[in-house]
Design goal:
The chain is mainly alpha-helical and 456 residues long. It has helices at 31-60, 62-69, 79-107, 109-119, 121-130, 138-147, 150-165, 168-198, 211-215, 218-231, 242-249, 252-282, 300-320, 322-346, 349-378, 389-404, 407-422, 426-448; strands at residues 3-4, 22-23, 234-235, 289-291, 294-296. Strand 4 and strand 5 form a beta hairpin. The longest helix has 31 residues, at 168-198.
Length: 456
């Protein structure tokens, strides 16, 4: 492996920085360096990072589809067991985001991106093995589902890596593309997998070919791992900011903003995971719409509209203030949840779908606006003399992103408890509406009327 040394005064002598190298001098804030060498290298690394994060979200959400189809493949599962298979990947994924944040600096961005892509072969191949055997014990299914959480950790390492490559003036654009590419993976999973496992050309009288749900992604993971190894770079100047993380954790606003992010992103990833199950339970006749020899589920629309709405949440936050937009998002989420309580007894799939998509859009907007609040609020706080506001803001972004992902575990478990206690989901949505009301009040009290964000 070559060790490439570049500096601003060498720009005229170096035409390009090849992939697969360690870069020991990286100055994206230097306009000459950035325009001549930095931008193309950063964009190349961003492209492969998006590919890896996209597949990470794909693997993270596989069991949201597969768990619903297991009974058709001969498995006998209780409602609680099905919801555990859906929710445990989010629990593991949220937890893995903490160590993944620091692994880029330990191994190098190119090296860890390659490793993290190859690690996803474990849950995909493992899924293909266990779902082809209806006699597989539930604990084994749960372990393989938990390993899918490795895909959730990819978000943290990918964002940590890309932030080192871009200058401050372009970080928002780059990180936004990176995040959007990952979020879309959830939608693609829920669109592609039902089609792939239901194709009956080769076995017209058989049930769903569930092993395909895992094997489908193996070639793409191998290609992405090779591309990351061949074309990405390591930055020797990338450093984990443990002191910044510890300083940020002492800030009360970190925990308040993390709570808000559980409400926005946690709701998005949680509802994305359970949407196929909710459609299957509430409107089974619409769970699989036939298209030729295959079938498709409309559950993918939820994650799709939520992902597409996220950038607009950030844009609205830039114009009107993140706190105001976040408060409005919670109001919309509360109204959407109450509308679902009313819509469920009506037994209209169109109304149910429209109400849920409204909630997904609100979660997407809230994701963007809440994430935009974090650096604004932290940079208004007084430094402690040892750790700058900027360092604490950067660390807070990673910590809050990790904590927020735990909502992906809480949402399915609340819905499961409601189903077991009452036989339906109305109670859960009343609880969600109450939670969004509380989060809206916190947002208005602390960040709108308190004008914490406005002091930036």
């Amino acid at each position: 492996m070559s060790l490439l040394r570049t500096s601003a005064d060498q720009v005229g002598a170096v035409d390009s920085i090849p992939g697969g190298t360690w870069i020991h001098h990286w100055e994206p804030e230097d306009p000459t360096f950035w325009e001549r060498l930095g931008r193309p290298v950063a964009r190349r690394n961003l492209g492969w990072s998006i590919c890896t994060e996209f597949l990470g979200f794909v693997v993270w959400q596989l069991w949201s589809v597969v768990a619903v189809l297991l009974p058709k493949a001969g498995f006998s599962l209780t409602t609680a067991e099905t919801f555990w298979l859906i929710s445990v990947p989010s629990l593991v994924g949220a937890t893995m985001r903490f160590p993944y944040t620091f692994l880029v600096a330990r191994f190098g961005g190119r090296n860890w991106t390659t490793i993290s892509a190859l690690l996803l072969l474990i849950p995909t191949i493992g899924l293909a093995v266990v779902v082809g055997r209806p006699q597989t014990p539930f604990p084994v299914l749960l372990i393989i589902a938990a390993l899918s959480g490795l895909g959730g950790g990819n978000f943290a390492s990918s964002m940590a890596n890309i932030t080192f490559f871009f200058p401050v003036r372009e970080k928002g654009w780059a990180l936004g593309l990176n995040a959007a590419g990952g979020n879309l993976g959830a939608s693609v999973t829920q669109f592609v997998v039902p089609i792939a496992v239901s194709i009956t050309i080769f076995a017209p009288n058989a049930g769903p070919n569930l092993p395909v749900a895992g094997l489908l992604w193996v070639p793409l993971l191998l290609i992405t791992a090779f591309g990351a190894w061949k074309f990405m770079n390591n930055l020797s100047g990338a450093r984990s900011d443990v002191a910044g993380s510890l300083a940020a954790a002492k800030e009360p606003h970190l925990w308040l903003l993390a709570l808000l992010y559980v409400g926005t992103f946690g709701s998005f990833i949680g509802f994305s995971g359970v949407f196929p199950k909710l459609i299957n339970d509430t409107f089974p006749e619409f769970a699989a719409l036939p298209i030729g020899t295959a079938s498709v589920s409309l559950a993918f629309l939820g994650a799709l509209v939520g992902s597409l709405a996220r950038p607009y949440g950030g844009r609205l936050a830039d114009r009107f203030g993140g706190a105001r937009v976040t408060a409005a998002a919670f109001v919309a989420m509360m109204l959407g949840s109450l509308a679902l309580v009313i819509a469920l007894p009506i037994r209209s799939f169109v109304i149910f779908l429209c109400c849920f998509l409204f909630v997904f859009v609100a979660t997407g907007v809230g994701n963007g606006s809440t994430y935009r609040m974090i650096p604004v609020i932290f940079t208004t706080r007084a430094g402690d003399g040892t750790v700058s506001q900027q360092r604490k803001a950067a660390a807070a972004l990673g910590l809050i992103a990790a904590i927020g992902a735990y909502g992906g575990f809480l949402v399915p478990q609340i819905l499961s408890a409601s189903k077991q206690a009452t036989g339906g989901y109305a109670g859960a949505f009343l609880g969600f509406a109450a939670a969004y009301l509380v989060l809206m009040i916190i947002t208005i009290t602390v960040y709108v009327r308190g004008r914490v964000e406005a002091r930036s």
